[in-house]
Amino acid sequence: MSLKRVLSGIQPTSDSFHLGNYVGALRQWVALQEGHDAYYCIVDLHALTMETDPALMRKRTLASAAQLIALGIDPNRSTLFVQSQVAQHNQLGWIMECITGFGEASRMTQFKDKSSKNGSDSTKVGLFTYPMLQAADILLYQADLVPVGEDQRQHIELTRDLATRFNSRYGQTFQIPEGFILKAGAKINDIQEPTAKMSKSSGTSNGVIELMDTPESNTKKIKSAVTDTGREVRFDEKEKPGISNLLTIHSALSGQTISSIEKDFDGKGYGDFKSAVAEVVVEYLRPIRTRALELLEDESHLITLLSQGAAKARVVAAQTLDETYKNLGLVQ
Ligand code: TRP
């Protein structure tokens, strides 16, 4: 029996992943290594759709790789690689652009949101074709499952449409992938603005818990997290969004159920509760951060691991691209 194939990608757009990335997605990447053939891609080409600084790009790509390994992506089990090292992504991306309607691409809500925020002059064409490159990332590996957050649902739908369209016009070429949409219990909010998703781009810096931040700084942030009126530690997203978010964080990392945490803090105040959450988070993240820092100390080893991943990825990608070109009638 062959294992189902999983593929996902993450942009190297920050020095550190945050707790929302981890609980919402990356932890599932780790779990899916079990029983699946997993491909995980640091999508640096996608990151170029926003203006980038070369030194930061390099630093963040390596930092992303180090953190992924530190949090449990095992480069011996999974194929962990950098998108720009596998040229087939761009090559298949072009083919995808050639079968996507202009109107179809114009309906992508992420493009619409980002381009309306930035205005058409600073919106890059690459942002418009971003979903077609993403489709190529997925289809090159004949992925069965694509674990992503809710915000990627439309891109996965487009990928499925493009694969179906290509297969029916040019013959069976691509596996039709399923989105594996991560949700419920996995949604971590900003700890300063607990009704908004934890996010580097929209959040407050004090509201985002970073994997690479020092234990002292994360402790301080959690102790100054926004709480709600009243003094009961109780899960109630409407009346108590702050406390509910902290309960979700505690439960996600400690593995304790929300109701048992509520019980532990029965009769105690918010202060005690926040200290406990800080301890759970800091102790959970400590070994991850330590391991990532160790990996970053030996950059050449890290680069070797990534180039081994790219070599493995290239074998599969080249096979799919050959088949695609052949089915299109391109003379090779
Ligand atoms: N667009 C995805 C995001 O912003 C990142 C991504 C690029 C991706 N290529 C992918 C995710 C392929 C899954 C599969 O989160």
What does this structure look like?
- The protein has about 325 residues and is mainly alpha-helical.
- The chain folds into 2 domains: about 5-185 and about 300-325, HUPs (Rossmann fold); about 215-290, Tyrosyl-Transfer RNA Synthetase (Orthogonal Bundle).
- Helices cover about 55% and strands about 10% of the residues.
- It has 13 helices and 5 strands.
- It has helices spanning about 20-30, 45, 55-70, 90-95, 100-105, 110-120, 125-140, 155-170, 215-225, 240-255, 260-265, 270-295, 300-330; strands at about 5-10, 35-40, 80, 145-150, 180.
- The chain has a 3-stranded parallel beta sheet with strand order 1-2-3.
- Helix 3 crosses helix 12 (about 270-295), helix 4 crosses helix 7 (about 125-140) and helix 4 (about 90-95) packs parallel to helix 13.
- About 40% of the residues are buried.
- The mean pLDDT is about 95.
- Tryptophan binds near residues 8, 43 and 152.
- Its EC number is 6.1.1.2.
- One of its GO terms (molecular function) is ATP binding.
- Its main location: mitochondrion.
- Belongs to the class-I aminoacyl-tRNA synthetase family.
- InterPro entries: aa-tRNA-synth_I_CS (IPR001412), aa-tRNA-synth_Ic (IPR002305), Rossmann-like_a/b/a_fold (IPR014729), Trp-tRNA-ligase (IPR002306), Trp-tRNA-ligase_bac-type (IPR024109), Trp-tRNA_synthetase (IPR050203).
